[in-house]
Design brief:
Pfam families: PepSY_TM
Number of strands: 8
Helix content: 55-70%
Number of helices: 13
Radius of gyration: 25 Å
Number of domains: 1
Distance between the termini: 29 Å
Protein name: Putative iron-regulated membrane protein
Largest sheet: 8 strands, antiparallel
Shape: elongated
Keywords: Membrane, Transmembrane, Transmembrane helix
InterPro entries: PepSY-ass_TM
Strand content: 5-15%
Length: 367
């Protein structure tokens, strides 16, 4: 039985190993993308501490729009932290962000997401930088399925069948030779990281295959809506945006302030509020995680709340939110992020140590 499992483990690891190393290594980098961005560009995310009150939102947006001759603010995100900058999403371009000093209205930086380092890392992680997002996405998806099987077969091969072998199964022999030490690193570290890597693999498949996503939805009795992952602005969405712009033409800057005050009355304790033309996305302070946001829709004529989509009441959003935070390791703060980062680094090393052992075996047989 173990011979067959070992054969499956070997056969699947050879074609998928390089891809899995890339996926795990890029995934490890993406775990701390926000933190790295804030460390490299602190002026984009923080302003000097001041006792001054932020500018009224209508005035702030007006000042910002004057600094953007070929663009304008579509959405704006405001943090409850007085030292954080405001972040505006601009109408023209795909996920173009403007970082704004909320006390002066100065645009500190403009960042198109597709030109950032982390977009390149993400595109390598998800579709191997394939511009069509088809073949590369399929390769990473199939490799991730292989990863699930490799982790399960690896755990079966690792599991000690005798009490005497327990100690050797959970420790790395420091005094052993290089090859033995490499074998222990592959076996022991792989076992330690296996549960986290399985979680990352099973959640990662949600972005690879619609059939898998729908199957997971059926398991949890959730009807999944149709949609493509990772799509940009389509022609249809641009036309829809233009219609919304015309419809919201009377949505004056005064209404931005009114929307903000309405939300603050509803949710006095929040981490951030993101305001759009006729909706507000709010992350309460006591939210379970960073994706547990509530969405308030406003009537464009009366500027009153016409409907609320609470995160706790929407099963599909709850599932997608938990999938995201489990995949990124952000569900438990710094501790789970560090654990996820270490597991991903170990995951990237497993194919390398596996290839080394395979090449060594081939050489040994040849001799």
């Amino acid at each position: 039985m173990k011979k067959a499992i070992k054969y499956i483990h070997l056969v699947l690891s050879l074609p998928a190993g390089i891809v899995l190393t890339i996926i795990c290594l890029t995934g490890a980098i993406l775990v701390f993308d926000d933190e790295i961005n804030q460390l490299i560009n602190p002026s984009r995310y923080y302003v000097e501490k001041t006792t001054q009150a932020p500018l009224p939102l209508n005035q702030l947006i007006d000042i910002v729009n004057k600094q953007l001759p070929n663009n304008s603010v579509s959405e704006i995100q405001l943090h409850n932290d007085p030292e954080r900058t405001a972040v505006a999403t601009l109408k023209e371009g795909f996920r173009v962000s403007a970082f704004i000093n909320p006390y002066s209205g100065e645009v500190l930086a403009i960042s198109p997401y597709r030109e950032t380092f982390f977009f390149k890392v993400m595109s390598l992680h998800r579709w191997l930088m394939d511009s069509s997002r088809t073949t590369g996405k399929w390769i990473t998806g199939v490799s991730t399925i292989f990863m699930v099987i490799l982790l399960i077969t690896g755990l079966i091969l690792w599991f000690p069948n005798k009490k005497k072998k327990i100690k050797s199964s959970i420790t790395i022999k420091r005094k052993a030779g290089f090859n033995r030490k490499l074998y222990d690193i592959h076996k022991v570290l792989g076992a330690y990281a296996s549960i986290v890597l399985l979680t990352l693999s099973l959640t990662g498949l949600m972005w690879s295959f619609d059939w898998y996503k729908n199957a997971v939805g059926r398991i949890f009795s959730i009807e999944m809506s149709e949609g493509k992952h990772g799509g940009g602005n389509t022609k249809g969405s641009r036309n829809e945006q233009k219609k919304n712009d015309v419809k919201a033409g009377s949505h004056s800057v005064i209404q931005w302030d009114a929307m903000l005050e309405t939300i603050k009355q509803k949710v006095p304790k929040y981490s951030y509020i993101r305001l759009g033309e006729d909706k507000a996305t709010v992350l309460p302070v006591d939210a379970l995680h960073e994706r547990a946001t509530d969405i308030y829709s406003f009537d464009a004529e009366t500027n009153e709340i016409k409907s609320v989509k609470y995160y706790k009441d929407e099963n599909q959003r709850k599932m997608n939110g938990w999938v995201y935070v489990l995949h990124t390791g952000s569900w438990g703060g710094w501790i789970t992020k560090i654990i996820t980062f270490i597991a991903a680094i170990i995951g990237s090393s497993l194919p390398i140590t596996g290839y080394w052992m395979f090449i060594r075996r081939i050489r040994k047989k040849h001799k």
